[in-house]
Amino acid sequence: MAQLYSWGARALFIGPALGLSPHRNAVAVVAVGLEAAFELSWNAHDYRTCRSALIPPNTLQHFRQTCGAMAFLYVDALSNDYARLLTLATANGDRAHLDLRCERLLIDHLNRLRATGADGWRETRKELEALLNGGVAPTADDRIVQTLQLIHEDPAARLPLAALARHANLSPSRFTALFKHATGVPVRRYKLWVAMGAAVRAMRRGANLTDASMEAGFSSPAHFSSAYRQMFGMEPSRLVGSSPALSP
């Protein structure tokens, strides 16, 4: 059974490898073989065997020999998460980092989530955040926390930076700095992640692509599909159709 979780500027898929064709992601991806190693290549000829890989954004990737369940953790290319993952990476891949130093920990956490499902998500989320934050819990300004709530309450609003800064009673420059410190990504990117999550959740509730796209504030289904494909390397319908579990 496949599972899909999203929170902040992150998404986590657990399940079969989806028969992915060669693709690029606009985000960074941590691929983990939860049951066995897999093979990864950048040119469909020279494959490397590994159990985990940190794949940089905009990197062409070919998977094969994906036995059993896998996990794909997507993090924004501009995020603090990606910077942290780079410190945990080894440098033995031509275009990616293979066999991460945190590999065993990730496999344990994610296999436990695979077994417990949504009931275990809260605990696994804390474990993943501790890993991504280097074990240090981030602190956020209350004004930013309130702004995040505003963004999540109405993803379709796509309030401009000036309006969000006024809501927080901050100058745009100060708001931008505090927001990046709290979330790890720029304001525009964070709003895009939230909107994509809202659209996918609407589709999981049974909405069609058109209604889900409009509900999340995209100008058209094509706009949503294009943005999603650019970020995740696949059509939203493929991921949604494979995943019965989705958590915010």
Q: Can you give me a brief rundown of this structure?
A:
The protein has 10 helices and 10 strands. With 248 residues, the protein is an alpha+beta fold.
Walkthrough of the structure:
The protein has 248 residues and is α+β, with helices and mostly antiparallel strands. The chain folds into 2 domains: 3-132, Jelly Rolls; 142-247, Orthogonal Bundle (Arc Repressor Mutant, subunit A), CATH 1.10.10.60. Helix content is 44%, strand content 17%. The protein is built from 10 helices and 10 strands. It has helices at residues 80-87, 103-116, 121-132, 142-153, 161-167, 172-183, 187-204, 209-215, 221-232, 236-242, and strands at residues 3-7, 10-15, 28-33, 38-41, 48-50, 52-55, 62-64, 70-75, 97-98, 245-247. The strands form 2 sheets. It has a 7-stranded mixed β-sheet with strand order 9-6-3-8-2-1-10, sandwiched between helices. Strand 1 (3-7) and strand 2 form a beta hairpin. The longest helix is centred in the C-terminal third of the chain and has 18 residues, at 187-204. It is globular, with a radius of gyration of 18 Å. Mean pLDDT is 85; it is low at 244-248.
